[in-house]
Predict the 3D structure of the following.
Amino acid sequence: MLKNRYCYVAIFSYDKDGISIEFPDLPGCYPCADKEDTDMALKNAKEALALHIWGMEQDGDEIPQPTTITSLHLESNQIAVLIDVFMPPVRERINNKFVKKTLSLPAWLAAKADEDGVNCSKIFQNALIDYLNIQKK
């Protein structure tokens, strides 16, 4: 069962060229921000954590237990920050994102639809919902 909330430690490294961010428990999740912009670093870390967790959920990967903040050994240019995400709105936003599909119609039918101001995307959506017998919420 998927959890609704996750909280992981992020290590913010302040360097001359910007802020690099690492999640020790989540290899491959490395957001960043411009130097001296901690607000943007926090925003980017939160977004990257949400997307990384969502991807792991989709792939069926085991989501690791978070490392405790007290077990970290940091360099002088680093700070540890707890980043948390609430996943239900993230899942909702991603799952309801529109995806472009190419649809082929006979030229005469496309012309008639354009002439009558038909929203082909909406009609296609409704037809798929009916065809797949999906109950609208």
Summary: The beta strands are 5-15, 18-22, 32-33, 78-86. The radius of gyration is 22 Å.
